[in-house]
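Morning!

As promised:
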Amino acid sequence: QVLIFAGLSQHFLFFPLVAEFPDLRKHNNCMASNLTPAIYAKLCDRATPNGFTLDEAIQTGVDNPGHPFIKTVGMVAGDEESYEVFADLLDPVIKERHNGYDPRAMRHPTDLESSKIQSGHFDERYVLSSRVRTGRSIRGLSLPPACTRAERREVERVVVDALSGLKGDLTGKYYSLTQMTEKEQQQLIDDHFLFDKPVSPLLTCAGMARDWPDARGIWHNNEKTFLIWVNEEDHTRVISMEKGGNMKRVFERFCRGLKEVERLIQERGWEFMWNERLGYILTCPSNLGTGLRAGVHVKLPLLGKDPRFSKILDNLRLQKRGTGGVDTAAVGGVFDISNLDRLGQSEVQLVQTVIDGVNYLIECEKRLEKGQDIKVPNCFGPK
Amino acid sequence: HSNHIQKSSRSYQMHLKLKYTAEQEYPDLSQHNNHMAKVLTSEMYANLRDKETSSGFTLDDVIQTGVDNPGHPFIMTVGCVAGDEETYEVFKDLMDPVIEDRHGGYKPTDKHKTDLNPDNLQGGDDLDPNYVLSSRVRTGRSIRGFCLPPHCSRGERRTIENLSIETLASLEGDLKGKYYALKNMTEEEQQQLIDDHFLFDKPVSPLLLASGMARDWPDGRGIWHNDSKTFLVWVNEEDHLRVISMQKGGNMREVFTRFCTGLTKIEELFKERGHEFMWNEHLGYILTCPSNLGTGLRAGVHVKLPNVSKHEKFSEILKRLRLQKRGTGGVDTAAVGGVFDISNADRLGFSEVELVQMVVDGVNLLVEMEKRLEAGESIDDMMPEQK
């Protein structure tokens, strides 16, 4: 048996390799599917320049075996370098999660030119609201699983400082979680803007909730159509939204806001984590590339009950959720419909996919209303 | 992939940790009410933050649970944990005042007495079974040389488990028993352990989760008990070992005797295999939570006190007897049907025998008070002195 150092600094404990390898026999997540003893042996002695280790990266996947039907990712990045240092594991995980995308061979297209979007104003008898979200990480600072309090506070400082430079319809205000008044808190709850300390063990086991609510907060513009979460699951989550079906306008504001924030942080000597292989770098490998989820709340009471609904969504590269977000059920026939993919296609491409797909779903619903039959569309785009 | 560092390059890692000033890293404890928060000033943080134990446990690791869990206005939690035996030395400046505050003024120069000789206990075999439903004594033990649950690796945890299995398998006579690994038990075994009230679950308390004790669950965790179900050992839950002796009724003496015999035997068996328990003459037995130092001992009974518990002086009586009450579900539960869990409040600075004696004497008094109140008589003349 191979004896290796399995400890930090002077704590020398000689264990056979097999003694440290996690027991993943009951596990069903992407990390567990791809972590072999050989990969573990190769990577377990390494740390990123910030000191983030393999054990820390996979802890969430060890602690949360997963679900027979839902395949979670099972690992996180602690910093930008994680994606390089632990590439032997992260590359196959990314490949599995993102439909065969190979970070060693492929390039990810970034495209935030919202003028390219065609149509994108939905029938508002069906679409109740439209929303686009993504995340951005500040290069040079560790990610939520690994950051120290000072780093997290630095993220907050950099982002809030930049946001104070937004003008026009993007003028807004920051509400720190530690300092908001009861009244502000209630308003944010009523607006459905307030985020809570994570309770999902997928997140808490990765260490993202440490020091809560220190350096966490919410920024939004006065019109309440552009919102930024600071230091929740990522350095920033950026959300553009409005009632009704004008997805094109939501995306236009999304792109404009993002570019403006990027310009403002660059003025101050910072930049977002991005590279051509993986696009925008975020904490969870599932959010690489665009990190983009464009979605609508849409009334599809008849289609929602049709046995072909799942297949239709699949072929349109869309996913459904309840209106409470991931892990909730649809209420009153209203679904949250959004893009499945994140990496390998650009923002423009993904939003167009959602627009075309939702339009198709609305057509199906209208046909069913009239007692007409519907068709399952052919597979759309890369599978 | 050449931009990684070796995990073991300690000085480089600590250098990275010091990139920001102490002030920038100092936690916001303004909403907090736990022992750690009361004691950790920004000066203390600055002095301690560049230190770590040989296994790499840092100040931030020690205090994470206390930062994440501000506490409760009425209940004072500890707010810090040890990741290994050395934590209590390296972070002495923090641990000593926390220990002093938690353990009734115990000084850094005080010596703790260990006494596991049950012959030194007086009485205790006849707590009135009409009132005392069950008797129980528990403690914890840590195996020297290994990191504690907040910090141990999977390999260490499994080694602790294997050592424990081997050692416990050698117990004989009344102590002969069987080990049930959490990840291997059958549905039937699991149900039996639940029915016996032996099975422990993955911790849900944020106090424990925030310190990393539940990592890799249920790997390396298990329950051992003797065939007569009166001696039980938990492996790798909140401590390396939790040792419990229990039985129905009021014969605390028998429970304590078995406790001492069992512990002493287990210690012997570990020593035969080249391992000892973490212990020193200042802090007694070393456990994960500073609240469990010294004896780590909680001796308690489930006792029916529907009348006494409603008396206006009940809390005062318990305080003077150095006892505490809990509901019968354990810490953080409420009493049901007038049945209370009454146990010693202290852990450190008193020996095992002394603590069990306090419980025996105190419970006897409480039962006498209960009988008086049942008979409609006053208990004013029975008020105890402060112990």
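The longest helix of chain A spans residues 347-369.

Hope this helps with the figure draft.
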